[in-house]
């Protein structure tokens, strides 16, 4: 009979407790969106509704243009992901494979900018967007996020693990930089590119502060901003607030659960290479 290792048992118990604490708010949010008003405000609190009130979601869509919020969020997150991934790819390739004057200086400048919190320059960006007349537009929503120093450095570390002899051999064979990127570099870096793309999309989907600043029309709101406005408009109807919150969180949560292995694999692999 194997001896019980109480330290391991205690560790698992602590992990289970922390897992329950972490997951419970999400579960209650989903269940609360299916409760009646009396159940969401009852004391002691109701955990599982007696009847699933699916009509709460119909009321949410009837009281606020959540379909429009979904569309705006998907469009802005997609544009940000595609363009920032493309720019990060080119920037990382240049830093790894190309030799040019001032390369070291540019790397220092970019690294310095990476340490600057986004909140420091957010009002400068707002003034720029306002002067350009881009408030309440898709361009204004996505323009400051079309490049990412962090993603560029992430891919730079990824590309740095690929032997430089492959690039040199491609050049000797007459390939252009563009051909090397699309025919060799991209296929060899699918994991890193997928991770960057997915993280960028999640970041765009969860955006709140910037859209709050540059949009004041209901038709241009993103999901999180629409949820904030709806929470105020819904007043004391807690069940509708929870249903709206579920609509906002559930799609990106499902996306993460589906691709969590790819995200973790890409991050861990990059850390091991670094």
3D architecture notes:
- It comes from Lactobacillus acetotolerans.
- Belongs to the binding-protein-dependent transport system permease family.
- This is Carbohydrate ABC transporter permease.
- One of its GO terms (cellular component) is plasma membrane.
- The chain is built from 14 helices and no strands.
- The protein is an all-alpha fold and 274 residues long.
- It has a domain at 64-223: MetI-like (MetI-like fold).
- The CATH class of the domain at 64-223: Mainly Alpha
> SS-based structural class?
mainly alpha
Shape by Cα distribution = globular
**Spatial gap, N to C terminus:** 44 Å
CATH topology of the domain at 64-223: MetI-like fold
Cα Rg:
24 Å
GO biological process, one term: transmembrane transport
Main location: membrane
Domain ABC transmembrane type-1: 70-259
Organism: Lactobacillus acetotolerans
What is the topology?
Blueprint lengths: L5 H27 L4 H4 L14 H9 L2 H32 L5 H12 L3 H14 L6 H5 L6 H12 L3 H9 L4 H12 L1 H16 L3 H6 L8 H11 L4 H36 L1
Helix pairs in contact: 1-14, 3-14, 4-8, 4-11, 11-14, 13-14
Short description:
The chain has 14 helices and no strands. With 274 residues, the chain is mostly helical.
